[in-house]
Amino acid sequence: MRHYPAGVTVVTLNSEKGPVGFTATSFASVSLRPPLISFNIAHTSSSIEAMLRAESVVVHFLGEHQQHIAQRFSRAAEERFTDRSLWTNLETGEPVLHGTPIWVRATVHQLIEIGDHTLVIGLVTRVHDDAEELPAAAPLLYYNGTYHRPEAL
């Protein structure tokens, strides 16, 4: 699967212990009516317990200028939210990352355990789109184990 390019997202959520987040390249649109999205999380992820208890998430579609964010949220869990200048909380409590061209907030609609992952289905409740206003709004891609700009493939 390394040879299939994928858009890079960061999923964030609020937990009783504070903000939680992780990088995910498994994002997919599931349905237009109702507006459903999905992503997978590994059972070995440090975020799995919080994800299984979460009522809502924010999925950030990273721009090509945000490789540092993708790498940050792939590192140790305790390092992900240490730089408070990178994020703020929505009025609903979820962390939202600054400078992300597009993000969606979704309530957890369904959790499906599949193999060594859990498939999360979310019902979209809010869409934030700054893609046209940001100068580097092209998506960040993940291909063959590294991050890429779209024209670099």
Automatic annotation (TrEMBL):
GO terms for molecular function: FMN binding; riboflavin reductase (NADPH) activity. InterPro entries: Flavin_Rdtase-like_dom, NADH-dep_flavin_reductase, Split_barrel_FMN-bd. Keywords: Oxidoreductase. The keyword Zinc-finger does not apply. Signal peptide: none annotated. Residues 1-149 form the Flavin reductase like domain. The keyword Nuclease does not apply. Pfam families: Flavin_Reduct. Belongs to the non-flavoprotein flavin reductase family. This is Flavin reductase family protein. It comes from Nocardia uniformis.
